[in-house]
Amino acid sequence: MMWLALLCLGVGLVLVAWGRRLHRATGLPAGRIVGHDVAGLEGTPSSPLLVAPRLGLSGRPDYVIRVEQALVPVEIKPRRRASRPYESDVMQLMAYCLLLEETTGVAPPYGTLVYAGARWHVPYTPDARRAVFRAVQEARAALRASYVPRSHTHPARCRACQVREVCGEALA
Ligand code: SF4
Question: What distance in angstroms lies between residue 7's CA and the mean position of ligand 1's atoms?
Fold first, then answer.
């Protein structure tokens, strides 16, 4: 029976090592996955929708990882290639950090952003928190306003925009 116990132990160790390798390959930070928003991923609970009624903010990160006492959001953009994170992606990630802080009472130390071939741990700082608050306020004001000026000068962004047909500010 000893050989059977040793065999089970060996298989268990191989599976653990393989799981860790897979975990690293996805770009996820080390830690236990406590939720995800990824279709077809078995064995891990789906992330609940995070809601902060006080802020009028809600969202669901691709993954939520437990790192020590905190929950860390992870956003994955598998087809995006860039040498540094897009500002809009960072803002989305910081909004998830704020939502996790509001719903758990513990501020994540950072959020993780994964592109094709690159990964960043973006610190969740008081400045980042303030930036999310500001963005929420600006979005609310924009919703109330009848005219919202274009906030960029990138024609490519307009070409990919879903409301281009009805937008009076679209760039060629
Ligand atoms: S088409 Fe209009 S809404 Fe869309 S990105 Fe361009 S300016 Fe913004």
Answer: 61
Our answer on whether the CB atom of 170 is closer than 6 Å to any ligand 1 atom is yes
**Residue 91 belongs to domain with CATH number:** 3.90.320.10
Residue 23 within any structural domain of the chain: no
Tens-place pLDDT, residues 112-142: 999 998 999 999 999 999 999 998 888 888 7
Contacts 24+ apart (CB under 8 A), 104-107: 104/71, 106/69, 106/70, 106/71, 107/70
Domain region containing 88: 30-124
Q: Could you tell me the distance, in angstroms and rounded to a whole number, from the CA of residue 165 to the centre of ligand 1?
A: 9
Write down the pTM of the prediction: 0.68
Number of domains in the chain: 1
Nearest Cα residue to atom 5 of ligand 1: 158
